[in-house]
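Lest this sound abstract, we think one record worth quoting, the chain in one-letter code, the fold tokenised, each line plainly labelled:

>
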Amino acid sequence: MTSKGGTAPLCNPPGARAGRLRRPDGWTALTVAAAALVAAPLLVLPASFVAAPDALSDFSGLLPEAAVATAILLVGVGIGTLVLGTGLAALVSFFDFPGRSWIEWALVLPLAMPGYVFTLFALGASDAFGASWLHVRSPLGAVAVFTLVLYPYVYLLVRSAFLAQGPELLEAARGRGLSRSQAIVRVAVPLARPAILGGVALALMESMADFGTVNLLGLQTFTNAIYKVWFGAFDRDAALQLGTLLVSITLTLLLLERLSRGRARYTQDGARGRAQTPVRLRGPLAALALAGPLLLVGLVVAAPLAQLAVWSVSSIADGRLVPEFAASARNSLMLAGMSVVLVVGAALVLAYGRRASRSAVPAGAVRVATIGYGLPGSVVAVAVIVPLGWLDHRLDDVAGVGLLLTGTVIGLFAAYTVRFLALAYQSVDAGLERVPRSLDEAARGLGSDRLDVLARVHVPMISGAMLTAALLVFTEVMKELPATLLLRPLGGDTLAVAVWQSTAESLYETAALPALLIVLVGLAPVAALIRLSRRAA
């Protein structure tokens, strides 16, 4: 419609602005593409029930055994980590005793001890001292191992929750005649319920995802069943379906953890004006408060490290181990180093794509791309191998190049990316969130495109966050066992695989040196976590 003077209308034609808003954004497309590449293998899991609905019928006897063993493990580890983690968090948060400032951080050190490495120590010590009465190779032994190495998940979250609580409610409870311990149990612990449930959920997911520990201790959980079906019966579809069942259990745990919170409130009204004042313990109580955590850290960290060092010296003196260890160490370092570049690079693309795009699509793509960290390594491995195998055969049909993907480390890199992308993304995204958006606008105003802004402005400013992400990914790849075991190429044994193989054959001295290196590498991110936490405090 025109005006009386025949001038053009002041408004844009219908759809013109909408068309500009819907114009594809380069970073949105890149983020979606990266997310699709990461998430595509996971679609294979439920699809296996359509492709081969009766695949598990040949393993009907395996399912009940795996279900019972997994249930026993979950119940035992859940109770164990809840009691131990919450109890230790309450001890260092509400009570003061000699050495408390050191103990509260030493209790985090078991995070550096992989379950299969502690199992190596436990089995070796049990066999050496004839302590068969310990029944390490049993469901109770597996529960004990996981409780000892996973309680820090609960401890860290609950300790933070306790320290965030003001002293007013505890003082009110004391005013009603409750003792200090009764006030903690009836007031502080219920307030920390979300942290407790979150920590226990993390511990349960880690124990369900574990393969090395349960395999070495003879516990036939779902992860062990996947390995048996894959390598023992070479049944890909059955392995995929077992993986789907395991993922379903993981998602159910997460859903129950969220639903258990309901609409209840776990916060205090008003700002927290004062911090908790720990009660000073004296005499035998102070000695007991110090001795308990010291014995725990000594059992889980100091004693294994000392024993591994002794065994390592013995194996080095033998001379035969050096070439084998060098090859495994070289493979581990190569895989970890290249995975850092790939995974942190993908995390940077996702994080900056979400920041740079005006669309809500990248945020959804990120959620899809980062679900892999909650999945067991064995499940990720069997999910990755199917699309890679299909693509391998198509490439071979066209170019006759053989198995380029499934027969090489490319399969491992794909699995590591799916598994650890969330770990890197959280760190990189947190770093980007601290960069003011006004810097983006200023750089764009000077004529820089988004890629230039990322390279010249953001990357230098978030180098610390990227280094943290690199450290976490490097450590996790070094420790990863199930995905590496299932996907490694011929001659591609890593330190983790070497530990598992030697321990399974009761060659504890042979397993010691690679295990020692894994633990020492694992101490780096734990030390960084302790340093950051102390600085924040």
Summary: The first strand starts at residue 95 and ends at 96. Confidence is low (pLDDT under 50) at residues 1-24. The chain has two domains: 26-56+319-504, 61-265+278-318. The radius of gyration is 26 Å.
